[in-house]
Design brief:
By secondary structure, the chain is of the alpha+beta class. It has 3 domains: 126 residues, Immunoglobulin-like (Sandwich), CATH 2.60.40.1220; 233 residues, C8orf32 fold (Roll); 122 residues, C8orf32 fold (Roll), CATH 3.10.620.30. Helix content is 32%, strand content 25%. It has a 7-stranded antiparallel sheet with strand order 18-17-16-15-19-20-21. The chain has a 6-stranded mixed sheet with strand order 2-3-10-9-5-6. A hairpin with a 2-residue loop joins strand 7 and strand 8. The longest helix is centred in the N-terminal third of the chain and has 14 residues. 41% of the residues are buried.
Length: 502
Protein backbone atom coordinates (compact mmCIF):
# COMPACT_ATOMS: atom_id res chain seq x y z
CA UNK A 1 0.00 0.00 0.00
CA UNK A 2 1.47 3.35 -0.98
CA UNK A 3 1.86 5.78 1.91
CA UNK A 4 0.83 9.41 1.90
CA UNK A 5 3.69 11.04 3.84
CA UNK A 6 2.58 14.17 5.63
CA UNK A 7 5.08 16.01 7.79
CA UNK A 8 5.20 19.61 9.03
CA UNK A 9 8.00 20.42 6.62
CA UNK A 10 6.36 18.72 3.63
CA UNK A 11 3.03 20.38 4.39
CA UNK A 12 4.62 23.82 4.29
CA UNK A 13 6.33 23.09 0.97
CA UNK A 14 3.20 21.59 -0.60
CA UNK A 15 1.03 24.54 0.38
CA UNK A 16 3.40 26.97 -1.29
CA UNK A 17 3.37 24.88 -4.48
CA UNK A 18 -0.36 24.25 -4.73
CA UNK A 19 -1.40 27.80 -4.00
CA UNK A 20 -0.60 28.44 -7.65
CA UNK A 21 -1.68 25.19 -9.30
CA UNK A 22 -4.88 24.47 -7.36
CA UNK A 23 -6.07 27.78 -5.96
CA UNK A 24 -9.61 27.32 -7.25
CA UNK A 25 -9.99 23.83 -5.78
CA UNK A 26 -11.12 25.02 -2.37
CA UNK A 27 -13.91 23.60 -0.23
CA UNK A 28 -15.37 25.14 2.91
CA UNK A 29 -15.42 22.87 5.96
CA UNK A 30 -18.18 22.87 8.57
CA UNK A 31 -16.73 26.05 10.10
CA UNK A 32 -16.57 27.82 6.73
CA UNK A 33 -12.77 27.61 6.79
CA UNK A 34 -10.91 27.56 3.46
CA UNK A 35 -9.03 24.28 3.17
CA UNK A 36 -6.53 23.90 0.37
CA UNK A 37 -6.47 20.88 -1.92
CA UNK A 38 -2.86 19.73 -1.83
CA UNK A 39 -2.95 16.94 -4.38
CA UNK A 40 -5.21 14.94 -6.68
CA UNK A 41 -5.26 11.21 -7.32
CA UNK A 42 -6.95 9.59 -10.32
CA UNK A 43 -8.45 6.13 -10.88
CA UNK A 44 -8.47 5.09 -7.24
CA UNK A 45 -9.76 1.56 -6.47
CA UNK A 46 -13.34 1.42 -5.17
CA UNK A 47 -12.20 -0.12 -1.86
CA UNK A 48 -9.06 1.99 -1.48
CA UNK A 49 -7.65 2.47 2.02
CA UNK A 50 -5.44 5.47 2.65
CA UNK A 51 -2.40 5.30 4.91
CA UNK A 52 -1.47 8.74 6.22
CA UNK A 53 1.91 9.00 7.95
CA UNK A 54 2.90 12.02 10.01
CA UNK A 55 6.41 12.85 11.19
CA UNK A 56 5.26 12.97 14.83
CA UNK A 57 3.55 10.37 16.99
CA UNK A 58 -0.06 11.50 17.04
CA UNK A 59 -2.61 11.69 19.83
CA UNK A 60 -4.95 8.72 19.29
CA UNK A 61 -7.76 10.46 21.17
CA UNK A 62 -7.62 13.25 18.60
CA UNK A 63 -8.26 11.00 15.57
CA UNK A 64 -11.96 10.82 14.74
CA UNK A 65 -14.54 11.62 12.06
CA UNK A 66 -14.15 15.35 12.77
CA UNK A 67 -10.38 15.50 12.27
CA UNK A 68 -9.66 12.95 9.51
CA UNK A 69 -12.49 11.95 7.21
CA UNK A 70 -13.60 11.38 3.62
CA UNK A 71 -16.41 13.32 1.98
CA UNK A 72 -18.07 12.96 -1.39
CA UNK A 73 -18.19 15.78 -3.92
CA UNK A 74 -21.78 16.34 -2.73
CA UNK A 75 -20.55 16.99 0.81
CA UNK A 76 -21.62 13.76 2.56
CA UNK A 77 -19.23 12.06 4.95
CA UNK A 78 -18.28 8.47 4.12
CA UNK A 79 -18.38 5.93 6.97
CA UNK A 80 -14.81 4.77 7.64
CA UNK A 81 -12.85 2.71 10.11
CA UNK A 82 -9.66 4.00 11.71
CA UNK A 83 -6.50 2.11 12.54
CA UNK A 84 -3.72 4.01 14.31
CA UNK A 85 -0.12 2.77 14.42
CA UNK A 86 2.28 5.17 16.08
CA UNK A 87 2.62 7.92 13.41
CA UNK A 88 0.26 6.33 10.88
CA UNK A 89 -3.51 6.57 10.46
CA UNK A 90 -5.16 4.02 8.13
CA UNK A 91 -8.50 5.23 6.80
CA UNK A 92 -10.70 2.51 5.29
CA UNK A 93 -14.23 2.95 3.85
CA UNK A 94 -16.88 0.61 5.30
CA UNK A 95 -18.48 0.33 1.85
CA UNK A 96 -17.08 0.75 -1.64
CA UNK A 97 -16.88 4.21 -3.15
CA UNK A 98 -19.08 4.93 -6.16
CA UNK A 99 -17.35 4.38 -9.53
CA UNK A 100 -16.08 7.40 -11.47
CA UNK A 101 -16.82 9.77 -8.58
CA UNK A 102 -14.91 12.52 -6.77
CA UNK A 103 -14.03 12.41 -3.08
CA UNK A 104 -11.85 14.36 -0.64
CA UNK A 105 -9.72 13.22 2.28
CA UNK A 106 -9.92 16.04 4.82
CA UNK A 107 -7.37 16.49 7.62
CA UNK A 108 -7.59 19.23 10.25
CA UNK A 109 -6.78 19.89 13.89
CA UNK A 110 -4.54 16.82 14.21
CA UNK A 111 -2.30 16.97 17.29
CA UNK A 112 0.76 15.04 18.40
CA UNK A 113 1.21 13.18 21.67
CA UNK A 114 2.18 16.48 23.34
CA UNK A 115 -1.09 18.08 22.15
CA UNK A 116 0.66 20.29 19.60
CA UNK A 117 -0.77 20.91 16.14
CA UNK A 118 0.82 18.68 13.50
CA UNK A 119 -0.23 20.53 10.34
CA UNK A 120 -2.47 23.12 8.79
CA UNK A 121 -5.85 21.85 7.51
CA UNK A 122 -5.68 20.35 4.01
CA UNK A 123 -7.51 18.07 1.60
CA UNK A 124 -6.52 15.44 -0.95
CA UNK A 125 -8.87 15.01 -3.87
CA UNK A 126 -9.27 11.62 -5.53
CA UNK A 127 -11.42 10.22 -8.31
CA UNK A 128 -12.43 6.57 -8.39
CA UNK A 129 -12.08 4.16 -11.28
CA UNK A 130 -14.88 3.20 -13.60
CA UNK A 131 -16.22 -0.11 -12.36
CA UNK A 132 -15.32 -3.06 -14.53
CA UNK A 133 -18.31 -5.08 -15.67
CA UNK A 134 -20.61 -2.30 -14.50
CA UNK A 135 -23.92 -3.53 -13.10
CA UNK A 136 -26.83 -3.81 -15.43
CA UNK A 137 -28.87 -0.71 -16.00
CA UNK A 138 -31.90 -0.50 -13.74
CA UNK A 139 -34.01 -0.15 -16.87
CA UNK A 140 -33.56 -3.89 -17.45
CA UNK A 141 -35.67 -4.42 -14.32
CA UNK A 142 -38.02 -1.43 -14.32
CA UNK A 143 -39.51 0.73 -16.99
CA UNK A 144 -39.66 4.43 -16.20
CA UNK A 145 -43.24 4.35 -14.92
CA UNK A 146 -42.46 1.49 -12.51
CA UNK A 147 -39.30 3.24 -11.37
CA UNK A 148 -41.15 6.50 -10.64
CA UNK A 149 -43.80 4.54 -8.71
CA UNK A 150 -41.02 2.90 -6.69
CA UNK A 151 -39.47 6.29 -5.87
CA UNK A 152 -42.80 7.87 -4.97
CA UNK A 153 -43.82 4.73 -3.03
CA UNK A 154 -47.49 5.20 -3.90
CA UNK A 155 -49.13 2.06 -2.59
CA UNK A 156 -52.25 2.58 -4.70
CA UNK A 157 -50.13 2.44 -7.87
CA UNK A 158 -48.25 -0.61 -6.61
CA UNK A 159 -51.56 -2.33 -5.87
CA UNK A 160 -52.99 -1.46 -9.26
CA UNK A 161 -49.94 -2.86 -11.06
CA UNK A 162 -49.74 -5.99 -8.82
CA UNK A 163 -46.00 -5.32 -8.89
CA UNK A 164 -45.16 -6.99 -5.62
CA UNK A 165 -41.53 -7.40 -6.60
CA UNK A 166 -41.32 -3.63 -6.04
CA UNK A 167 -42.52 -4.19 -2.46
CA UNK A 168 -39.59 -6.59 -2.07
CA UNK A 169 -37.29 -3.72 -3.09
CA UNK A 170 -38.97 -1.40 -0.61
CA UNK A 171 -38.80 -3.97 2.17
CA UNK A 172 -35.03 -4.28 1.68
CA UNK A 173 -34.80 -0.48 1.85
CA UNK A 174 -36.64 -0.62 5.19
CA UNK A 175 -34.39 -3.30 6.65
CA UNK A 176 -31.32 -1.27 5.65
CA UNK A 177 -32.78 2.08 6.74
CA UNK A 178 -30.43 3.85 9.21
CA UNK A 179 -33.37 4.50 11.52
CA UNK A 180 -33.76 0.74 12.15
CA UNK A 181 -30.19 0.57 13.46
CA UNK A 182 -30.73 3.66 15.61
CA UNK A 183 -33.88 2.22 17.23
CA UNK A 184 -32.28 -1.21 17.66
CA UNK A 185 -29.51 0.34 19.75
CA UNK A 186 -32.15 1.83 22.05
CA UNK A 187 -34.18 -1.39 22.23
CA UNK A 188 -31.17 -3.57 23.07
CA UNK A 189 -30.61 -1.51 26.21
CA UNK A 190 -34.19 -2.21 27.36
CA UNK A 191 -34.44 -5.96 26.70
CA UNK A 192 -35.75 -7.72 29.79
CA UNK A 193 -34.81 -11.37 30.36
CA UNK A 194 -33.75 -11.70 26.72
CA UNK A 195 -37.35 -11.28 25.51
CA UNK A 196 -36.76 -9.24 22.37
CA UNK A 197 -40.28 -9.84 21.01
CA UNK A 198 -41.98 -8.27 24.05
CA UNK A 199 -39.47 -5.41 24.09
CA UNK A 200 -40.06 -4.53 20.44
CA UNK A 201 -43.82 -4.93 20.89
CA UNK A 202 -43.80 -2.50 23.82
CA UNK A 203 -41.63 -0.01 21.92
CA UNK A 204 -43.90 -0.18 18.86
CA UNK A 205 -47.07 0.44 20.90
CA UNK A 206 -45.53 3.50 22.52
CA UNK A 207 -43.81 5.00 19.49
CA UNK A 208 -45.66 4.09 16.29
CA UNK A 209 -49.08 5.35 15.29
CA UNK A 210 -51.43 4.66 12.35
CA UNK A 211 -52.80 7.71 10.54
CA UNK A 212 -56.36 6.39 10.39
CA UNK A 213 -58.52 7.60 13.23
CA UNK A 214 -56.25 10.54 14.09
CA UNK A 215 -57.89 13.94 14.14
CA UNK A 216 -55.11 15.36 11.97
CA UNK A 217 -56.15 13.13 9.07
CA UNK A 218 -59.95 13.08 9.25
CA UNK A 219 -62.03 13.19 6.08
CA UNK A 220 -59.43 11.43 3.97
CA UNK A 221 -58.29 12.08 1.35
CA UNK A 222 -59.01 15.73 2.06
CA UNK A 223 -56.67 16.02 5.05
CA UNK A 224 -54.28 13.20 4.28
CA UNK A 225 -50.81 14.83 4.20
CA UNK A 226 -49.94 13.09 0.94
CA UNK A 227 -52.97 14.38 -0.96
CA UNK A 228 -55.19 12.32 -3.26
CA UNK A 229 -54.97 10.46 -6.53
CA UNK A 230 -57.73 8.64 -8.46
CA UNK A 231 -60.12 10.25 -5.98
CA UNK A 232 -58.65 8.60 -2.90
CA UNK A 233 -55.71 9.10 -0.56
CA UNK A 234 -52.28 8.37 -2.00
CA UNK A 235 -51.30 6.09 0.93
CA UNK A 236 -47.54 6.32 0.68
CA UNK A 237 -45.75 3.16 1.76
CA UNK A 238 -43.15 4.91 3.90
CA UNK A 239 -39.66 3.88 4.99
CA UNK A 240 -38.76 4.16 8.70
CA UNK A 241 -36.89 7.44 8.10
CA UNK A 242 -39.97 8.87 6.40
CA UNK A 243 -42.18 7.66 9.27
CA UNK A 244 -39.88 9.48 11.68
CA UNK A 245 -40.20 12.65 9.61
CA UNK A 246 -44.00 12.37 10.04
CA UNK A 247 -43.41 13.21 13.71
CA UNK A 248 -44.11 16.82 12.70
CA UNK A 249 -47.83 15.84 12.74
CA UNK A 250 -48.16 13.39 15.61
CA UNK A 251 -44.98 13.39 17.70
CA UNK A 252 -44.50 9.69 16.87
CA UNK A 253 -43.41 7.49 13.98
CA UNK A 254 -46.42 7.66 11.68
CA UNK A 255 -47.66 5.65 8.72
CA UNK A 256 -50.28 3.23 7.47
CA UNK A 257 -50.52 -0.54 7.95
CA UNK A 258 -48.11 -1.60 5.20
CA UNK A 259 -45.40 0.77 6.37
CA UNK A 260 -45.93 -0.16 10.03
CA UNK A 261 -45.82 -3.92 9.38
CA UNK A 262 -42.55 -3.56 7.47
CA UNK A 263 -41.15 -1.25 10.15
CA UNK A 264 -41.79 -3.66 13.04
CA UNK A 265 -40.71 -6.64 10.94
CA UNK A 266 -37.44 -4.85 10.09
CA UNK A 267 -36.81 -4.27 13.80
CA UNK A 268 -37.27 -8.00 14.40
CA UNK A 269 -34.92 -8.84 11.51
CA UNK A 270 -32.30 -6.52 12.99
CA UNK A 271 -32.64 -8.27 16.33
CA UNK A 272 -32.36 -11.95 15.51
CA UNK A 273 -35.33 -12.93 13.34
CA UNK A 274 -34.02 -15.31 10.66
CA UNK A 275 -34.55 -14.46 6.99
CA UNK A 276 -36.48 -17.67 6.25
CA UNK A 277 -38.85 -17.36 9.19
CA UNK A 278 -41.18 -14.51 8.27
CA UNK A 279 -43.28 -13.09 5.43
CA UNK A 280 -45.69 -10.22 4.86
CA UNK A 281 -49.22 -10.95 3.67
CA UNK A 282 -51.33 -8.50 1.68
CA UNK A 283 -55.08 -8.41 1.37
CA UNK A 284 -57.22 -5.63 -0.06
CA UNK A 285 -56.68 -2.60 2.15
CA UNK A 286 -54.42 -4.19 4.77
CA UNK A 287 -51.01 -5.83 5.32
CA UNK A 288 -49.81 -8.00 8.19
CA UNK A 289 -46.64 -9.95 8.94
CA UNK A 290 -46.34 -13.48 10.30
CA UNK A 291 -43.10 -14.73 11.82
CA UNK A 292 -41.63 -17.66 13.69
CA UNK A 293 -39.20 -16.94 16.53
CA UNK A 294 -37.83 -19.47 19.03
CA UNK A 295 -40.42 -22.00 17.77
CA UNK A 296 -43.30 -19.64 18.60
CA UNK A 297 -45.56 -17.99 16.00
CA UNK A 298 -46.48 -14.31 15.97
CA UNK A 299 -48.54 -11.83 13.98
CA UNK A 300 -47.61 -8.17 13.41
CA UNK A 301 -50.80 -6.18 12.95
CA UNK A 302 -50.14 -2.43 12.79
CA UNK A 303 -48.08 -1.57 15.90
CA UNK A 304 -48.96 -4.79 17.78
CA UNK A 305 -47.08 -8.07 17.98
CA UNK A 306 -49.55 -10.80 18.89
CA UNK A 307 -48.73 -14.37 19.83
CA UNK A 308 -50.81 -16.52 17.49
CA UNK A 309 -53.62 -18.35 19.26
CA UNK A 310 -56.64 -20.32 18.02
CA UNK A 311 -58.73 -17.17 17.50
CA UNK A 312 -56.06 -15.55 15.34
CA UNK A 313 -55.56 -18.79 13.44
CA UNK A 314 -59.27 -19.01 12.64
CA UNK A 315 -59.22 -15.44 11.32
CA UNK A 316 -56.16 -16.20 9.16
CA UNK A 317 -57.76 -19.36 7.75
CA UNK A 318 -60.81 -17.36 6.65
CA UNK A 319 -58.88 -14.52 5.01
CA UNK A 320 -58.18 -14.43 1.28
CA UNK A 321 -54.70 -12.98 0.89
CA UNK A 322 -53.74 -11.70 -2.56
CA UNK A 323 -49.94 -11.77 -2.22
CA UNK A 324 -46.99 -12.36 0.04
CA UNK A 325 -43.61 -10.69 0.02
CA UNK A 326 -40.36 -10.77 1.88
CA UNK A 327 -36.83 -9.40 1.51
CA UNK A 328 -35.97 -12.19 -0.94
CA UNK A 329 -39.25 -13.54 -2.36
CA UNK A 330 -42.64 -12.30 -3.53
CA UNK A 331 -45.69 -13.80 -5.16
CA UNK A 332 -48.86 -12.21 -6.50
CA UNK A 333 -51.82 -14.61 -6.37
CA UNK A 334 -54.16 -16.29 -3.92
CA UNK A 335 -52.46 -17.28 -0.69
CA UNK A 336 -54.13 -19.44 1.94
CA UNK A 337 -53.10 -19.99 5.53
CA UNK A 338 -54.04 -23.35 7.00
CA UNK A 339 -53.27 -25.34 10.12
CA UNK A 340 -50.46 -27.21 8.36
CA UNK A 341 -48.35 -24.09 8.15
CA UNK A 342 -48.01 -24.07 11.94
CA UNK A 343 -47.36 -27.80 12.28
CA UNK A 344 -44.66 -28.52 9.72
CA UNK A 345 -40.93 -28.91 9.95
CA UNK A 346 -38.56 -26.49 8.21
CA UNK A 347 -38.53 -22.75 7.76
CA UNK A 348 -41.69 -20.65 7.86
CA UNK A 349 -41.23 -19.67 4.19
CA UNK A 350 -40.99 -23.33 3.21
CA UNK A 351 -44.15 -24.07 5.22
CA UNK A 352 -45.99 -21.26 3.39
CA UNK A 353 -44.88 -22.50 -0.05
CA UNK A 354 -45.72 -26.11 0.75
CA UNK A 355 -49.19 -25.21 2.04
CA UNK A 356 -49.93 -23.32 -1.20
CA UNK A 357 -48.31 -25.90 -3.51
CA UNK A 358 -45.72 -23.38 -4.65
CA UNK A 359 -42.13 -24.01 -5.56
CA UNK A 360 -39.40 -21.37 -5.40
CA UNK A 361 -39.30 -21.45 -9.19
CA UNK A 362 -42.93 -20.24 -9.16
CA UNK A 363 -42.19 -17.07 -7.21
CA UNK A 364 -40.11 -13.94 -7.78
CA UNK A 365 -36.65 -14.24 -6.22
CA UNK A 366 -34.92 -10.98 -5.47
CA UNK A 367 -31.44 -10.56 -6.90
CA UNK A 368 -29.45 -7.86 -5.17
CA UNK A 369 -28.64 -4.98 -7.49
CA UNK A 370 -26.95 -1.93 -6.00
CA UNK A 371 -28.32 0.36 -8.69
CA UNK A 372 -31.91 -0.57 -7.85
CA UNK A 373 -31.20 -0.14 -4.16
CA UNK A 374 -29.89 3.37 -4.76
CA UNK A 375 -33.06 4.41 -6.60
CA UNK A 376 -35.19 2.95 -3.80
CA UNK A 377 -33.15 4.88 -1.22
CA UNK A 378 -33.35 8.00 -3.41
CA UNK A 379 -29.59 8.26 -3.77
CA UNK A 380 -28.11 10.64 -6.33
CA UNK A 381 -25.41 8.07 -7.10
CA UNK A 382 -27.46 6.59 -9.97
CA UNK A 383 -27.26 6.52 -13.75
CA UNK A 384 -30.25 8.80 -14.18
CA UNK A 385 -30.73 11.30 -11.31
CA UNK A 386 -33.14 13.28 -13.53
CA UNK A 387 -35.73 10.60 -12.66
CA UNK A 388 -36.21 12.28 -9.27
CA UNK A 389 -37.44 15.44 -10.98
CA UNK A 390 -39.84 13.40 -13.12
CA UNK A 391 -41.12 11.65 -10.00
CA UNK A 392 -41.52 14.98 -8.22
CA UNK A 393 -43.59 16.50 -11.00
CA UNK A 394 -46.31 13.88 -10.42
CA UNK A 395 -46.76 14.67 -6.73
CA UNK A 396 -50.28 15.82 -5.71
CA UNK A 397 -48.99 18.32 -3.15
CA UNK A 398 -46.47 20.07 -5.41
CA UNK A 399 -49.06 20.30 -8.19
CA UNK A 400 -51.50 21.89 -5.77
CA UNK A 401 -48.82 24.28 -4.51
CA UNK A 402 -47.77 25.29 -8.03
CA UNK A 403 -51.16 26.95 -8.53
CA UNK A 404 -50.39 29.32 -5.65
CA UNK A 405 -46.67 29.90 -6.28
CA UNK A 406 -46.03 30.97 -9.84
CA UNK A 407 -42.83 33.04 -9.78
CA UNK A 408 -39.31 32.69 -8.42
CA UNK A 409 -39.51 35.19 -5.56
CA UNK A 410 -42.78 33.78 -4.20
CA UNK A 411 -41.37 30.23 -4.35
CA UNK A 412 -38.16 31.20 -2.52
CA UNK A 413 -40.07 33.11 0.16
CA UNK A 414 -42.50 30.22 0.67
CA UNK A 415 -39.62 27.76 1.12
CA UNK A 416 -37.91 30.18 3.50
CA UNK A 417 -41.04 30.48 5.65
CA UNK A 418 -42.32 26.89 5.52
CA UNK A 419 -39.42 24.45 5.14
CA UNK A 420 -36.94 23.78 7.95
CA UNK A 421 -33.33 22.66 7.57
CA UNK A 422 -33.50 19.17 9.13
CA UNK A 423 -32.10 16.42 6.93
CA UNK A 424 -34.68 13.63 6.60
CA UNK A 425 -33.01 10.77 4.69
CA UNK A 426 -29.73 9.66 6.23
CA UNK A 427 -28.53 7.65 3.21
CA UNK A 428 -25.47 9.22 1.56
CA UNK A 429 -26.25 11.54 -1.37
CA UNK A 430 -30.00 11.17 -0.96
CA UNK A 431 -32.62 13.64 -2.17
CA UNK A 432 -36.28 14.12 -1.26
CA UNK A 433 -38.98 14.43 -3.88
CA UNK A 434 -40.86 17.73 -3.87
CA UNK A 435 -43.88 16.23 -2.08
CA UNK A 436 -41.69 14.74 0.64
CA UNK A 437 -40.17 18.14 1.37
CA UNK A 438 -43.62 19.75 1.50
CA UNK A 439 -45.11 17.06 3.77
CA UNK A 440 -42.11 16.71 6.09
CA UNK A 441 -41.71 20.50 6.27
CA UNK A 442 -37.95 19.95 6.30
CA UNK A 443 -35.15 19.29 3.86
CA UNK A 444 -31.54 19.89 2.93
CA UNK A 445 -30.43 22.51 0.38
CA UNK A 446 -30.69 19.95 -2.42
CA UNK A 447 -34.21 18.95 -1.27
CA UNK A 448 -35.32 22.58 -1.33
CA UNK A 449 -33.67 22.95 -4.71
CA UNK A 450 -35.65 20.06 -6.19
CA UNK A 451 -38.85 21.52 -4.74
CA UNK A 452 -38.16 24.91 -6.34
CA UNK A 453 -37.16 23.31 -9.64
CA UNK A 454 -40.39 21.27 -9.66
CA UNK A 455 -42.57 24.31 -8.94
CA UNK A 456 -40.89 26.28 -11.74
CA UNK A 457 -41.35 23.40 -14.21
CA UNK A 458 -45.02 23.11 -13.35
CA UNK A 459 -45.40 26.79 -14.20
CA UNK A 460 -43.96 26.40 -17.70
CA UNK A 461 -40.28 27.18 -17.02
CA UNK A 462 -37.19 25.11 -17.83
CA UNK A 463 -34.94 25.43 -14.78
CA UNK A 464 -31.82 23.47 -13.85
CA UNK A 465 -30.85 22.20 -10.40
CA UNK A 466 -27.06 22.47 -10.06
CA UNK A 467 -25.13 20.93 -7.17
CA UNK A 468 -21.58 22.18 -6.65
CA UNK A 469 -18.92 21.71 -3.98
CA UNK A 470 -20.01 24.96 -2.37
CA UNK A 471 -23.78 25.20 -2.71
CA UNK A 472 -26.95 24.06 -4.47
CA UNK A 473 -28.38 26.37 -7.13
CA UNK A 474 -31.58 26.70 -9.12
CA UNK A 475 -31.01 28.44 -12.43
CA UNK A 476 -34.03 29.73 -14.34
CA UNK A 477 -33.38 31.79 -17.49
CA UNK A 478 -30.53 34.04 -16.33
CA UNK A 479 -31.54 34.09 -12.67
CA UNK A 480 -29.48 32.12 -10.14
CA UNK A 481 -30.76 31.22 -6.69
CA UNK A 482 -28.62 29.84 -3.87
CA UNK A 483 -30.43 27.19 -1.85
CA UNK A 484 -28.03 27.60 1.07
CA UNK A 485 -28.83 31.30 1.32
CA UNK A 486 -32.33 31.10 -0.20
CA UNK A 487 -31.71 34.25 -2.18
CA UNK A 488 -30.78 35.42 -5.65
CA UNK A 489 -27.03 35.50 -6.32
CA UNK A 490 -24.82 36.75 -9.13
CA UNK A 491 -22.86 33.60 -9.94
CA UNK A 492 -22.37 29.89 -9.25
CA UNK A 493 -19.50 29.07 -6.90
CA UNK A 494 -17.60 25.80 -6.97
CA UNK A 495 -17.19 23.00 -9.44
CA UNK A 496 -20.45 21.64 -10.86
CA UNK A 497 -20.83 18.08 -9.63
CA UNK A 498 -24.38 17.34 -10.77
CA UNK A 499 -27.05 18.94 -12.94
CA UNK A 500 -30.68 17.79 -12.72
CA UNK A 501 -33.12 18.78 -15.43
CA UNK A 502 -36.04 17.18 -17.24
Amino acid sequence: MKKVILSKLIIAVMVSIFLFGCSNNVKRDENAQQIKVLSEKEKVDLDKSFEIEFNERINKENVNEDTIYIISALGDKIDCTYEIKDKVVILKPKEEYQPDSKYYICVKNIKDSDDRSVSQPFKIKFTTKDKENTESSVDEYFNETELITLINKWLIDLDRSFNYKSLTELHNACINDPEINNISEIIKKDVADGDIVSTISKWAKNNIVHTQGLSQFRNEPGKDPWGSKYGCAVYKTLTPSEMKAMEVYTGRYTGKCTAIARFVCSLMRNNGLEQENYFLLAKRGHTICLFKYNDEYYKIDNNRILKINDTIKEDLYNTNFIAFYHEKYSYSGNIKISDSIFNSEGSFIEQLLSTNNLDKKDIYTYEENLEKQRYTQQSLDVHNPNIYLKASLLGPRVNELSKELRDEENIVNWIKNNIGDKRVLKVHHSILTADQTVVFKNGSSRDKGLLMTSLLYLNGNKPELIITEEDVYVVNDNNIYSMNKLEKVKSIEGEKNLIITK
